[in-house]
Amino acid sequence: MSxxxxxxxxxxxxxxxxxxxxxxxxVLVEAFVPERARRGTQLVLAFxxxxxxxxxxxxxxxxxxxxxGTDVLGGSLVxxxxxxxxxxxxxxxxxxxxxxxxxxxxxxxxxxxxxxxSVPGSDYEEVARRRGLTQTEVYPLVLFAAGGMLIFPxxxxxxxxxxxxxxxxxxxxxxxxxxxxxxxxxxxASLKYFLLGAFASALMIxxxxxxxxxxxxxxFSEIAQATATPSGLDSLLLVGTVLVLAGLLFKVGAVPFHMxxxxxxxxxxTPITGFMAACTKVAAFGALLRFYYTVVPGLQWDLDxxxxxxxxxTMVVGTVVxxxxxxxxxxxxxxxxxxxxxxLTGIVALEGSGISAxxxxxxxxxxxxxxxxxxxxxVRERSGADDDDPRTSxxxxxxxxxxxxxxxxxxxxxxxVFALFLLSFAGIPLTxxxxxxxxxxxxxxxxxxxxxxxxxxxxSAAAAFFYVRIIVLMYFTDPAExxxxxxxxxxxxxxxPAEPVSPVEExxxxxxxxxxxxxTLVAVPAPTTxxxxxxxxGLAVVAIGVCAIxxxxxxxFPTPVLDLIGDVAQFLP
Length: 573
What we know:
Distance between the termini: 34 Å
Low-confidence stretches: 482-506
Number of strands: 7
Helix content: 55-70%
Strand content: 5-15%
Mean pLDDT: 85
Largest sheet: 3 strands, antiparallel
Number of helices: 22
């Protein structure tokens, strides 16, 4: 019996190999590099990996543009035009996200707990904080997640799809629970994400089993051929396809699989929230786009009712619920849910132009998202005590909307950039978000799904309210007089965070000369804080600046990028 070695086109796999190879090296760095040199070494790997992946994508571009792409690993992966676009976007967004993740503020701290495994509030955690310990294993975890994201939209069989899903998800479960502040909230978010993610993975693998039972194959191309021939097992195929779609819709945060999104976005370290909100959505929509366009076009009549309902519910729920949020991270979370609905309009239409429209939308949305969460990372609470040392006076992130009042007057530059990202989310002309929405809605109309486009336009108009509300708050509202330091405590106690905090009353008991006790009620002022923009090493500022420039350039001059994407926006069969 002879063994035939498989032929592997390593050149086509270069972006994935570079990212995952750097992640493996990062694990070895944690084991063997001395602690004093560990962070610098990890940063070199974390920056080099996405840059190398971008270079690899650029090197593969011309060949794919000429021949349409190639199968890899016996058809398990497909490297075609959409794959390269998505991998390039994911690598670029990962690079921008790593800039924010690696940034340290003037407090000397990054966004991550000194010891993520310690009990919140324990003596061990306090000792680790005082010693200035850092979690450098964050960087290989980010690279592993990014490597899984590069594989996810390139998969051409259901088994590889599931493996890629787990590779990108497991590091994110850990990263979500590593926030330096609000440790319990972070760990709760991590647990919710893990449990709901495991449930969604179970749905997907059950759907994979049903589809395999129908078609006898896991390959997308062979499943598509099987769906072209009616049989008595069509119900098996339909149920299995819906379950696979449910797993993918969970990752993009579509209704009714969206319940994890606001809690995880709020509890995760803010740089990780930006990375997760941008890169995961790009990878998941890429996989959903390939599956929907190459596997189930023959089931369009059966799936239209499901997908239309999901798309409409996602746009409406994301927009309406965002209107009543008071936390900036939860506002952006529900905004991402609404945007998932907008992207679904371009997918559901099954129109050729929808591929390039969705790819462009994912690019512009990811850029604005990384920049927006980079701004949130820098806006902090500052104690009202007379202490000029940022290491002791600067507190956690100022995430309550009332704390952003007057930011445009005190820090006009940062507020202007944040307003630009919000206007792009709203789809205001001359921003990249407007071009993205126009492209996906046009594709929906061309594909006969004009009711979806109509709902999308109405939802965008309604969503503009809560974006503009934040801009008005920053530029046309005086800073709140209520102490902001106790906002988190008020919310935990069930009180309205907008209510002023009453001074604390203490009783001072003294003994009179005649032996009687005299009680005096003493009012102790509650601790107060202000909102500030904390200085940092500048890495996050670089990322925010690049995102702002791209948002403007892609909004004013989108044609070259649209043409570049359109030239290769065709899936291999």
